[in-house]
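Reading a protein record of the kind used here takes little practice once its layout is understood. The fold follows as a row of integers, each naming the local backbone shape at the matching residue. With these conventions in mind, the following record can be read line by line:

_____
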Amino acid sequence: MDGVVNTIFAYIESGVVTYRAVRVQGALNVPEASEGRKIGRRVHISAIGVDSASGFPLHPRARPV
């Protein structure tokens, strides 16, 4: 297999869908799940803004509550 792409998104937290579960544990699951499968590349894509001041509407702090 040439590669694995991990895309994540959690617009709101609900139950077990927490930002930490999606962003941290989800990202950690990718190398573990691809262990021993001869993966050439792993790509991680997040739909979250990195800066709350950016005004990006999907950033949790940029959205109206």
Observations:
- Strands lie at 3-8, 41-46.
- The CA atoms of residues 6 and 49 lie 17 Å apart.
- The two ends are 42 Å apart (CA to CA).
